[in-house]
């Protein structure tokens, strides 16, 4: 950026908005919106919003929790599980939202309201047992939203190119209790050739220049230039083309970005339409929710400017694949699949052990083994198991040893809801002890033995072991927290 441009930057807040960006926006801002209100909203702090994770708690339970804790909430009009949320400054300073019981237990995900739109746009096409791809998934807000919409059924392939972000994605899926996911670590451009017409539905929440995110990140426009918009659009075109190849005929594709420029939005969509002609159709989003038409473009896309709904900027388009297409570059993976089905003996022993201890009678998916590890794979995963190499499939249930299976933490966080016996609801102070790695003291001596699923805010959060006057803590070492959690002093 030139010196003059830096000097001309609008600096009446700490938000960095370069003049050449504003000049560019003026060329495509719709007539009914003013540049002044755009700038004003870019400089306003963003309202915080959360999404209730219905895999862990109901919206009614969430509302009850908010009322008991004096949290002010307002429903997000386009998402039945989304809420803007306000806490007192005193409470927020004393205990950040991320350290509260409802957050640690996976009951909520902090997610910007407009970022809830792409999965909502997919909803009318989504069936619970679908095979779905989330092509650019980390940190996983939309992956977990879709997993909840699928009720943890079917299979959801969540792909991410960056290794560090893939780890965050995996951790978030664990906290949210998602077990229908298979994680992969590729450039999304590979899916069209390796997984040609494999998916019932696809979400491509593309990497983008993030012009819509200045309200959250004051430096989002620091390196802004039209040249970088064009570079990113070239990646987006590769990804959208790959996604369309990977989509089954009759399936729907959501393309979204958190940026505003038509270079990364309308032009990328037009590229898809030009490439695939009669085989692709736009599914208009003007009736997605009341007032959606206020953000709808003439093509039927949603172009959410920050000032329309007082949110971040976002762009969402939906397409349907009408017919099968030819792909001359089909590729197949080499190498053997390292898992096999659990044999009858192991299946029987394991199922009777979890029935006896927890009253769990069946599991949603297939039991698989790799060496001594026992895994639960998502339903229908076998249909796509040999197509690509996955980083992680479903959840690890435990490790076999000579007397049975030693259960994993994830068994409890993802499947604990199925338990009818041996669950224990932690109080807030017991839960604080649990997350700090301490054992849980019981008021009276118990005669119960074996493992117990611990719950918080009604959601399963981990395992412990009954031991007379205490529950022995089984929280994995790497999840132990040293900061203040759950309790705060008023
Ligand atoms: N969908 C995510 C969510 O809701 O939490 C946000 C996704 S973010 C907008 C885009 C992601 O794409 C980033 O995590 C980035 O690392 C990843 N990415 C960048 N290039 C990619 C590529 N070629 N293939 C797949 N993912 C890519």
Description:
Belongs to the class I-like SAM-binding methyltransferase superfamily. RsmB/NOP family. It is found in: Cytoplasm. The structure is a single chain. With 490 residues, the chain is of the alpha+beta class. Among the domains are: 119-218 and 226-321, 3-Layer(aba) Sandwich (Rossmann fold); 340-388 and 396-414, no CATH class; 418-479, Nuclear Transport Factor 2, Chain: A, CATH 3.10.450. It has helices at 3-7, 19-26, 35-43, 59-68, 89-94, 101-104, 117-123, 141-149, 163-175, 191-194, 226-246, 266-276, 306-309, 344-358, 409-415, 428-435, and strands spanning 49-52, 72-75, 82-86, 108-110, 131-134, 155-159, 181-184, 199-205, 247-257, 280-282, 302-304, 314-321, 340-341, 366-370, 373-377, 392-393, 395-401, 404-407, 423-425, 440-441, 451-456, 459-467, 470-473. The strands form four sheets. Strands 5, 6, 7, 8, 9, 10, 11, 12 and 16 form a nine-stranded mixed beta sheet that branches. A five-stranded antiparallel beta sheet has the order 13-14-15-17-18. Strand 21 (451-456) and strand 22 form a beta hairpin. Residues 115, 135-142, 159-162, 165, 187-188, 205, 207, 235 line the site of S-adenosylmethionine.
Helix percent band:
25-40%
Provide the low-confidence segments as ranges: 1-12
Structural class: alpha+beta
Q: What would you give as the CATH superfamily of the domain at 119-218 and 226-321?
A: Vaccinia Virus protein VP39
Small molecules bound: S-adenosylmethionine
Q: Judging by the overall fold, what is the CATH architecture of the domain at 119-218 and 226-321?
A: 3-Layer(aba) Sandwich
* Total of DSSP H or I helical runs spanning 4+ residues: 16
Mean pLDDT: 95
CATH class descriptor name of the domain at 119-218 and 226-321: Alpha Beta
Round the Cα radius of gyration to an integer and report it: 24 Å
What's the story with the biggest beta sheet? Answer: 9 strands, mixed
Beta-strand content bin: 15-25%
Measured distance between first and last alpha carbons: 48 Å
As for the CATH topology of the domain at 119-218 and 226-321, it is Rossmann fold
Shape: globular
Count of extended strands: 23
């Amino acid at each position: 950026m030139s010196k003059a441009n830096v000097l001309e930057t609008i600096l009446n807040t700490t938000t960095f908005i370069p003049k050449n960006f504003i000049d560019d926006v003026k060329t495509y801002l719709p007539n009914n919106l003013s540049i002044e209100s755009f700038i004003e909203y870019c400089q306003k702090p963003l309202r915080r919003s959360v999404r209730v994770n219905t895999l862990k708690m109901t919206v009614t339970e969430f509302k009850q929790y908010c009322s008991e804790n004096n949290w002010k909430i307002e429903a997000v009009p386009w998402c039945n599980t989304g809420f803007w949320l306000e806490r007192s400054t005193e409470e927020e300073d004393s205990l950040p939202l991320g350290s509260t019981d409802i957050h640690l237990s996976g009951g909520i995900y902090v997610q910007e309201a407009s970022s809830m739109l792409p999965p909502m746009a997919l909803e009318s096409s989504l069936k619970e047992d679908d095979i779905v791809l989330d092509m650019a998934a980390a940190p996983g807000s939309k992956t977990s939203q879709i997993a909840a919409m699928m009720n943890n059924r079917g299979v959801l392939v969540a792909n991410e190119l960056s290794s560090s972000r893939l780890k965050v994605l995996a951790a978030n899926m664990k906290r949210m209790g998602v077990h229908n996911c298979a994680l992969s670590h590729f450039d999304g451009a590979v899916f069209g050739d390796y997984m040609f017409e494999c998916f019932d539905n696809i979400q491509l929440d593309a990497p983008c220049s993030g012009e819509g995110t200045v309200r959250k990140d004051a430096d989002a426009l620091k390196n802004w230039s039209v040249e970088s918009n064009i570079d990113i659009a070239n990646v987006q075109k590769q990804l959208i083309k790959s996604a369309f190849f990977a989509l089954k005929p009759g399936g729907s594709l959501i393309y979204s970005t958190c940026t505003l420029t038509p270079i990364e939005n309308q032009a990328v969509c037009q590229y898809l339409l030009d490439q695939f002609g009669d085989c692709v159709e736009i599914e208009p989003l003007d009736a997605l929710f009341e007032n959606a038409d206020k953000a709808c473009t003439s093509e039927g896309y949603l172009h959410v400017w920050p000032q329309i709904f007082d949110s971040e900027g976002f762009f969402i388009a939906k397409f349907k694949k009408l017919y099968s297409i030819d792909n001359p570059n089909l590729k197949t993976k080499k190498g053997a699949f390292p898992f096999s089905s659990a044999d009858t003996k192991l299946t029987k022993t394991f199922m009777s052990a979890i029935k006896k201890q927890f009253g769990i009678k069946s599991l949603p998916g297939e039991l698989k083994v790799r060496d001594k590890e026992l895994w639960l794979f998502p339903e229908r995963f076998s249909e796509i198991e040999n197509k690509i190499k996955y980083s992680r499939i479903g959840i690890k249930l435990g490790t076999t040893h000579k007397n049975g299976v030693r259960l994993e933490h994830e068994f409890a966080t993802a499947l604990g809801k199925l338990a009818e016996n041996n669950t224990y609801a932690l109080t807030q102070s017991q839960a604080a002890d649990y997350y700090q790695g301490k054992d849980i003291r019981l008021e009276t001596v118990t005669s119960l033995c074996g493992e117990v699923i611990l719950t918080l805010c009604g959601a399963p959060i981990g395992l412990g072991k009954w031991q007379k006057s205490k529950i022995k803590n089984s929280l994995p070492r790497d999840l132990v927290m040293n900061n203040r959690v759950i309790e705060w002093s008023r």
